[in-house]
Amino acid sequence: MNTQEKHASCASTGSVTASPVLDIRGLRLRLPRTARPVLDGVDLTVAAGETVALVGESGSGKTLTSRSVLRLLPPGADTEGAVRVAGEDVLTMSAARLRALRTGTAAMIFQDPRAAINPLRRIGDFLTESLRLNTGTSAEEAERRAGELLVAVGLAPAVMRQYPGQLSGGMLQRVMIAAALMGDPALLLADEATTALDVTTQAEVVALLGDLRDRFGTGLLFVTHDLGLAATISDRVYVMYAGRIVEAGPADALFARPRHPYTAALLAATPRLDAPQGRLNAIDGQPPDLKAELTGCPFAPRCVHATGICTEQAPEDRAVMAAPDGREHRVACHHSDRVTGSADHG
Known about the structure:
The chain has 346 residues and is α/β, with parallel strands linked by helices. Helix content is 32%, strand content 20%. The chain has helices at residues 3-8, 62-68, 95-104, 113-116, 123-135, 139-152, 169-181, 199-216, 227-233, 251-256, 261-268, 308-312, and strands spanning 22-30, 39-46, 51-55, 78-85, 88-89, 106-109, 187-191, 219-224, 236-241, 244-250, 318-322, 328-331. An eight-stranded mixed beta sheet has the order 6-7-8-3-9-10-12-11, sandwiched between helices. A hairpin with a 2-residue loop joins strand 9 and strand 10. The two termini are 36 Å apart.
């Protein structure tokens, strides 16, 4: 069965009414020698055929959230909650079941393709090895599959005979996408997958990911610090700060009217061609130190709307509005009614 047949029955682009391919509930992750959780009660879902963006500053917990989906966690990590992929909890899986999940159910596209591909081996070996070793697929069938996927990502099958050093960064990232698709995954995790690329190649890769999602019905979790990119590619957006989801909702509604001060500040700091000349806006202060405990809202020291309650009491996540199709827009802020701001990133 090919990828399109495998996922077509559950694909529902832009909708979360179908059973999610990724369902994270109450995820907490602690690391040694930290005073607070690195991830603190994360809830997140991705449906089949849906693209979900996870955005925030560096250090907010985005990468750890995505890596927890494959249980690629640092030594000494202590987890609570559930991370279900296609209904199975990754955090409680046996080693054998986890290996099977990484081979066929979920796959990750890493940020730096040159660091992920052995420079001394041909592209064909990189693409086919996992499938042959973990599923018993014959070398001929694995090579046929690799050739088909290289064509799907816009490369010639002849690339399989080349070495990584013979390809450009954009071509290598396409190889990484093909490798991620080798096992017919229901879920793709893209961790800053376009950061190292030039703007033109970045646009090509983003368009390619959207096309593959539509063709194969694969759920996509797109991790990025680039809000303009998130607005271009995503159906829904989760905004993360200090290991917590502070705002989540449909991309169009969230970017048109952000309801958390952090989201509004990120949008205001995004470079735009039509912005007035002068210095770019910036968010004053620094993200909280992992060696210090948090009380109240973690963004309070940097927030222009903060009052006494913000430093004393953590805000509860609540719905602030719903899109016409019923999708919720949620925010964790005591003063979301004060936040104004919009941006045209279309």
